[in-house]
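hey so u asked for the seq, here:
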Amino acid sequence: MQESQLSSAQICLEYTPAFGGSASAVRDYALALESRVIAFTSTEAPDRPDGWSKIPVWDVPARKDFLGQAYAWPGSAKSLQEARSILQNSKLIALHLLYRYHVQWGAGVARDFDIPFWVIPHGGLDPHVFTYRSLQKRLWMKSYGLRIMKQAAAVVFATEGERRKASPYLDGCTTQVVRLPIDHIDTTGRDDIRQKIRSQLQIPATDRVLIWLGRLHPMKRIFETIQAVGVANNASVHMLIIGPDEAISGNDCVRFSDQRQIKNVHVLGPIYGLEKYDYFMASDGFISLSHRENYNYALAEALACGLPVILSPGNDLSVDLSNQEHEMGWMLKSFDEHEAVEAIMRFASVPRSVLLDMGKAGQNWARLNLVRERFVSRVQELANETIRKRDSKSK
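ran it, structure tokens below
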């Protein structure tokens, strides 16, 4: 990176691992552009997650009341003013997420200093988002969001599917698609890892394992996924549930399974870093029936680990995967339980060689399209183009 090195900034909310894929995306953009990060956070002295050690972060503490929790309203005028001064010499600002104070504040600072900015919605314009707290979001879009996106140098999406779903809000906007990256995952020891993890979990070597990974939140449809596995009613199919408690707890998942006598559900809690890849490699497939996933890092990692996938239409990356020559799994057309159950039954019954072929096709696609070098090149190219356009207008 030459032109925009250390001269850009990312403005976001929380950046701890429990905040999910948006925090990972902020990290990836910050590393690609060697940016500083301004984080409007309600977490006191948040721990730096893996990969953040080289990123300069300025925390703007949110108020401790409802307004701070719900809207990220800053609790310190001093920290806000200092953050503003940090941004003064930036050549580019990226605003992550929507519907919170940091977006309108960051757009205002960008206008005051004549700095071009991007808006990165992280799935915030998906139709499902407007099925809850709809009035608040529509008022924010009318008051701030539509104007901010039109003023942005680019509204940046992680997949073509995400951009397609957002199209009703994009009139007059410049848009770009930049697929997020994953690091290379070494799967050469897969058989040994598979045996070790299955032995720990007391899963027979010949049984089929579906892995589910994410925040335990209703949007992820974890109960619906457990239910579909139960209805499929195949004693040789196991489900691994990995992720931190949120609106739903791991104990809730255990109770849900027990009450419906759904067996072979293994609730493992949050697992981060390299350790989680062991559980991918111990599995035979990945499942996500989420209402909304604008990208889904866990899905990308599953592909890189060579797993076939079962995906709801809420997974925007499924649009990209459906248009490939070789099948990578089951891309569902609806949220109907019957369709998910049928896919799980097919997953359980096809020869293992078919699953391996699907997984290999997904792995090849991920290694071609989701490599970090490709992401960095794309982001830097887009950043330098944005900066050049701004500089040419000011001459």
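The longest helix spans residues 372-394. The chain has a mean pLDDT of 93.
lmk if thats what u needed
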